[in-house]
């Protein structure tokens, strides 16, 4: 759990500035970045809710016999339900990223005209399975704020896995399209194909495909293997937000160009302001010196007249 809290904390710290950058620059108000912004928001809110739930409710159950989980109050259940919703929303936005990019590449980079359908999928669709899950838990397993795992969880797991499987198909087809286009341009060098495949590998965390390889839950076997596996799962789960923020914001050439341009502009304004300020200071000092010299000359002249 400590690993989970630390990794989610790292992602939260990296996601907040990335979102500020995306919302600040008008040049980034395009459909591609719109998708990134919504995915980043869902990852950020997931990180916040998971961190609060595990850091307060779960740790409280370890330290107190009559814990908040034992009380099974409506506030605790509502908070956990929102956490589940944010989790599923993240998977839906990963699916939207895959669907958008696949459509963009398959249609020869034709820009998507509308984004309302993605908002409906990303924020609207999760309400349905989460509501069904909450009603089922309330009627059939109303204990410990609904945190006890059971077959009810498959109500949420199925759409999550479906999103990952479809994204895997999208990625495979994207790679196929890129390789086909390379062959059509008479590019038969293996290095070119390897470079193209490596370029698409950065889409794995964006599409959430790393979770496919970690979907199997190791409950039996060597304790050290289980410990290492859980450490990897919790680390990748918590760090996903930070990884996509690095790959698609901080290391993005367009973002780096805009940040550099803003820095150069502010530096230029600062230099001009400093130059004007120093010039005014010099002029002020020169004026004071001239006035003092004039006063001294007047005093000397009056003294000579008296003599």
TrEMBL record:
Major localisation: membrane
Pfam families tied to this protein: 7tm_2
One of the protein's GO biological processes: adenylate cyclase-modulating G protein-coupled receptor signaling pathway
Start and end residues of each G-protein coupled receptors family 2 profile domain: 1-252
Annotated PROSITE patterns: G_PROTEIN_RECEP_F2_4 (PS50261)
Annotated membrane topology: Multi-pass membrane protein
Subcellular location as annotated: Membrane
Superkingdom per UniProt: Eukaryota
Transmembrane segments: 6-26, 38-59, 115-135, 155-175, 196-216, 228-251
Alphabetic keyword roster: Membrane, Transmembrane, Transmembrane helix
This protein's record includes keyword Transmembrane: yes
Gene Ontology cellular component list: plasma membrane
MF term (GO), any: G protein-coupled peptide receptor activity
PANTHER family: G-PROTEIN COUPLED RECEPTOR SEB-2 (PTHR45620:SF42), PDF RECEPTOR-LIKE PROTEIN-RELATED (PTHR45620)
This protein's name: G-protein coupled receptors family 2 profile 2 domain-containing protein
Organism: Larinioides sclopetarius
């Amino acid at each position: 759990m400590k690993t989970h809290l630390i990794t989610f904390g790292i992602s939260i710290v990296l996601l907040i500035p990335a979102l500020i950058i995306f919302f600040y620059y008008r040049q980034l108000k395009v459909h591609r970045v719109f998708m990134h912004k919504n995915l980043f928001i869902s990852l950020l809110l997931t990180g916040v809710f998971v961190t609060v739930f595990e850091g307060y409710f779960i740790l409280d159950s370890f330290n107190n016999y009559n814990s908040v989980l034992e009380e099974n109050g409506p506030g605790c259940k509502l908070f956990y339900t929102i956490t589940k919703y944010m989790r599923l929303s993240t998977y839906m936005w990963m699916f939207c990223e895959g669907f958008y990019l696949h459509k963009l590449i398959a249609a020869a980079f034709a820009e998507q005209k509308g984004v309302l359908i993605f908002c409906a999928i990303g924020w609207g669709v999760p309400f349905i399975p989460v509501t069904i899950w909450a009603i089922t838990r309330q009627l059939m397993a109303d204990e410990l704020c609904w945190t006890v795992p059971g077959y009810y969880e498959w109500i949420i797991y199925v759409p999550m896995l479906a999103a990952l499987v479809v994204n895997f198909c999208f990625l495979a087809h994207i790679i196929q399209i890129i390789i086909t286009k390379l062959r059509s341009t008479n590019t038969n060098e293996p290095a070119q194909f390897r470079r193209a495949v490596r370029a698409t590998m950065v889409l794995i965390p964006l599409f959430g495909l790393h979770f496919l390889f970690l979907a199997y839950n190791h409950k039996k076997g060597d304790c050290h293997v289980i410990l290492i596996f859980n450490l990897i799962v919790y680390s990748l789960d918590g760090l996903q937000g930070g990884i996509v923020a690095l790959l698609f914001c901080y290391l993005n050439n367009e973002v780096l160009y805009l940040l550099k341009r803003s820095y150069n502009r502010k530096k230029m304004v600062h230099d001009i302001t400093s130059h004007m300020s120093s010039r005014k200071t010099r002029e002020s000092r020169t004026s004071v010196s001239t006035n003092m010299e004039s006063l001294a000359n007047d005093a000397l002249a009056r003294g000579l007249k008296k003599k």
